[in-house]
Amino acid sequence: KVVPFETVEDTVVCTLEFKNDTFPVLENAGEAVARVVRKGKTDTFCRVRYITSDGNAVARKDYVPQDDWLDFPEGVTEGTIRVPIIDNQSLHDDKDFFISLSIPQVLQANGEVDKELKADIGPRIKTSVVIIDDDDAGVVSFEKDEHTIYQRDEEFVAPIVVKRKVGGCGKVSVAYSLEGDSAIPGRDFVAAEGRLDFDHNEMQAKIEVTIKAVPRYETKDRFRVLLFDPQGGLKLDTHMDGGSQRNILTVTIEADPESRQRVDRVWNLLQAKWQRSKVGQANWASQFKEALYVNGGQSDDDDEEDSDTPRLWDYIGHGITVPWKLLFALVPPTDFCGGWLCFYVALLMIGFVTMLINDLAALLGCVMCLPDEITAITFVAMGTSLPDTFASKTAAEQDPYADASIGNVTGSNSVNVFLGLGLPWMIASIYWAGKGYDEVWQARYQFASGLDFLGPAGRRTQGFVVEAGSLSFSVAIFACCATVCLVLLQTRRILYGGELGGPARPKWVSSGLLCGLWLFYIGISSWKSLSEEGGFSCR
């Protein structure tokens, strides 16, 4: 059996070390301050010994030597060592001395050293204190030889920092001026000159340069800021651009990276839209080409010659439909306005064609001595529904299920009923509700039968009126036929596993039944319309 022993690391409760490697102090500051930090547990009382030692600074000549203890009561994580500095009023280089830490201890409540709990010293066991001579006026210079200013959308003031070092005694000044290069005074910046003043022990000042609001993207312009004629014992930094006679700071004005990125994003967006516009124009031109040529202009020597070569019926159909093809080629492709322009223009075209079919069907019914009710359920319905029929056929051929095919039919009829009837009736109702007295309406509907919902005869409120005629009977017959159709679809699903397709004979039987329902609906509705009171006469 091995008994484990307690290591030193197990009993160390805190670590003490200097906060920084170097602590600078002006010679006339009176004292140097060095900070010691405690890491680890803070629920004990710790202390550490500190002692000063000479560097090129000499004890009792440049500073007062120290040898003492720094205490850390419970909860305290930072302590301060203060060393008095002697101002000798003589010109000299910067000097330094050192402070070292040793003998970290953990104390008990009675003040005795705890023999079980330990404190340790961290990596920063020693620090240097730099005494900066303040008896010289100092050296003045820019932070570096070059400086970049980023352009803004509005005029603004950019500060140029000038630093004073190696001394800070007395009030001094230095002259400055702005000199143009590719940046022109008055256009890119405001020309300025003057003197920059430093108070006693003031180590930094700023030159304020006004930058004009100039649009920039890739261009960069430069100007220079000059320091010269130092006074009060001040000297120029000989290591900077310009040497001891003058210091030169080259300032570059360039576009702000974020602004450039915004411009790039806008430019890329415009380029993308322009490319889409070019593609859209090409697609629009190809629509007219396809409208003018048989089968859309497919070549006779394509790979699939048998299927692409126009036949006699293709030429006949093209001759009949070419005016309509050219008309609908005016519909812009979806490349413009995200497809919305195509959508609205297509709606206008559909409305135009619907209106044309309605008028032509009404004229045909008049010539054939057919009432409007029969014309509506035959010629008008066929003219507006045949495109849906071919669309449903295409959907049935391209989709493994009947959802798209049947959904197209129900969706199309829903649009026809709810939007095709509801929207114009709503507009007409609003129109007649706001219209004043109308003699034609009063003569036609004020004493007509079946309009009691508008009020008693003679005092009826003027409104939009559509006489039903045989509509209710027609809708009832349609509902019965639709019910039979739904029963047929459900029966096909049970017997053959789907609404469409299946064995040939049931398929033809279903098709014949559906066509028979259509003929039955037309026949019964036409009979009802012709047998109305007063019948129908063609004059």
Briefly, what is this?
The protein is of the alpha+beta class and about 550 residues long. It contains 10 helices and 18 strands.
Supply the number of helical segments. 10
Note the run of SSEs as H and E. Answer: HEEEEEEEEEEEEEEEEEEHHHHHHHHH
Distance between the termini: 126 Å
Average pLDDT over all residues: 83
- Name the beta content range: 15-25%
State Rg. 49 Å
What characterizes the major β-sheet? Answer: 5 strands, mixed
Q: Label the structural class.
A: alpha+beta
Provide the helix percentage.
25-40%
Shape designation? elongated
Placed side by side, the strands forming the largest sheet appear as: 2-9-7-4-5
Number of strands: 18
Multimerization state: single chain
- Sequence stretches where pLDDT stays below 50 over 5 or more residues: 1-9, 299-306
Topology overview:
Elements: H1 8-11, E1 12-18, E2 22-26, E3 31-40, E4 45-54, E5 67-72, E6 78-84, E7 95-107, E8 118-121, E9 126-132, E10 139-142, E11 146-150, E12 156-165, E13 172-180, E14 193-198, E15 204-211, E16 221-231, E17 235-236, E18 246-254, H2 257-292, H3 305-308, H4 312-328, H5 340-367, H6 372-398, H7 403-434, H8 439-445, H9 471-496, H10 504-530
Parallel strand pairs: 1-8, 2-9, 10-17, 11-18
Antiparallel strand pairs: 1-3, 3-6, 4-5, 4-7, 7-9, 10-12, 12-15, 13-14, 13-16, 16-18
Helix pairs in contact: 5-6, 6-7, 6-10, 9-10
